[in-house]
Fold:
Amino acid sequence: MKRNIYFIASLLIYSFSLCWAQNENPDIKEDFKPSSLNQPGQEYPKVNSQGYARFRIAAPEAKSVKVTLGGREGTMLTKSDDGAWTGTTLEPLDEGFHYYHLIVDGGIFNDPGTLNFYGSVRWESGIEVPAFDQDFYALKDVPHGRVQQVLFPSKSTNTIRRAFVYTPPDYDKDQTKRYPVLYLQHGWGEDETAWGNQGHANLIMDNLIAEGKAKPFIIVMTYGMTNEIRFGGLKDFDIKPFQMVLIEELIPYIDNNFRTIPDQPHRAMAGLSMGSMETKMITLANVDMFSYIGLFSGASISLDDVSKTSGFKEKVKMVFVSYGSKEYEWIAKRGREFTGGDPSENVESLKKAGINSILYVSPGTAHEFLTWRRSLREFAMLLF
Amino acid sequence: MKRNIYFIASLLIYSFSLCWAQNENPDIKEDFKPSSLNQPGQEYPKVNSQGYARFRIAAPEAKSVKVTLGGREGTMLTKSDDGAWTGTTLEPLDEGFHYYHLIVDGGIFNDPGTLNFYGSVRWESGIEVPAFDQDFYALKDVPHGRVQQVLFPSKSTNTIRRAFVYTPPDYDKDQTKRYPVLYLQHGWGEDETAWGNQGHANLIMDNLIAEGKAKPFIIVMTYGMTNEIRFGGLKDFDIKPFQMVLIEELIPYIDNNFRTIPDQPHRAMAGLSMGSMETKMITLANVDMFSYIGLFSGASISLDDVSKTSGFKEKVKMVFVSYGSKEYEWIAKRGREFTGGDPSENVESLKKAGINSILYVSPGTAHEFLTWRRSLREFAMLLF
Structure:
């Protein structure tokens, strides 16, 4: 378990550095537009059609202002005549969503131009580079489901806990219809807001359902780190407290309060990065509870895992494994010892054993949210 | 209308300055605790039992760091030996919620220690000074309703708009039961997130319902500035675009998608500050739609308004007017010309005319959210 944790941490660091080393200083096109995640009325940060990001921070008396995006060293801004600090990344960013923050005179602050997103165990600034396939998570004029905040009691942790629940567009139309459920987990340093805010899980589902490409189902998102390490590292991670909350408290709450189909064939679990490790551990320990398993950017399941798990072959309908292309190469080279084998070999060996096993690789993305938005879309189309 | 706008703006400025002029430099008790709105694991900002706030900002190379709380001049922080900037407000803050931000070397940034709340047309830092009656909006072990994000189509603005909908704890238990609805508006510079985030509207209702002090009803919160001045001032404010969205689009959407009692006797509208002006204008123009009117920290309704409004006396069941005590005194002295008369005179004159009219003054608060949390509580107990 500890090795898996270090692996995830290494992945994160690797991803932050990988995506900057490709572009040989091309001419930068002056077609910059405000990032779609900016606060109302804010012009900066901006991105251009090549993926370069440009920043502008007012701090007339500052000595130095740096942005943590733009390679391992980040992007140093320079002071303009009007007292604002401006600068453009030296290389284009990958398509999709990126967390970042500012370092102003040695202090960590968020960019006042943009919205905040919970990641890295803090509310970080976010910027969005338009992706070639951004239409699949766009807000469109289609029927929209709802995202509900529920507060559920948890005896095991002696807390009242929060979950967000996506219900599909037709949920309130026919009061007799019942739905399958996907339990969907965030990554390390994130929380139950991640899949809704930066993940656009609701819009992905609304669009898929409108196109007839996915069956309507409920998605439940809650906080996956219950063992008091919200603020710390992963090294003492223990799945049991969260497993208790999920299996004994949240699932019964959801089944009691939403029109679910409360059985194994109609229940799935998926997660990203740390959430994929949680998904692997919890589903292997509870094959009577989950029939679909989604592992995004982290764990995979080997034939050895299957053989150690009584009932797996009969009960599990699908194992879905995904990565961003830029992290996947690295895993194939260096990471296989940490994930219990090479993911593609694992997927193939499960296939040969007659288990429905799928590998998806997101083009041109690293260990970031566009990988996971795409993973959710691909996974959702195969569910139930 | 313009005068009302300037009045609200004056109120805001006045409120920011009023609450600091009382305490004659008492001994400061060293019982500081992290504010309840801090980010996970963050120790600062802190507040003590007297209402003093203490800040700590890491920015070792900065020349100056100031906090906008602590009187008209704010609180200048001083650099400690470890490079962090620290300081305590010179006077205690009022109980309740306060927006603020930092000024670091002349630039506006949020405090990285605390959560952000949308106010002043930006996501601001927030701090909470425990109130003597904080129990009424506390997260307690009672049945909890849900807060749902809905995305509804708006032809008049050619947008897909967001609303948050509170449904009471028993909403999903009996699928035949229908509920009254309160439409609840934020103030200038805020948005549809305000009543849920800083207002704790859901917790206030959960607690009231658990105590049997309010009937269960639905609350709908949406953005009240539709005329493209989200980023600007109020001087060109026109109620018509928002009235169109509310009356022609949102209310039909809610009545079609939630189990409402879709008639005038079971529909209320309330709002704070600018939202109270909107509420006054919209309810007076639509007495066939709303039977309860809540005006928090802004407008009041005069006998003249009533006599100009056909059907008001027969149809409107209650006019509720509220203020914080610290803004109310000022209004009694200087503001009456702007609100169409002294609020208490207005309330009394309506009472004498046989109209159920109520004035509530929140003790020890100014033009801030504790006034409005209390106003919602008082108003909710009288509804339906």
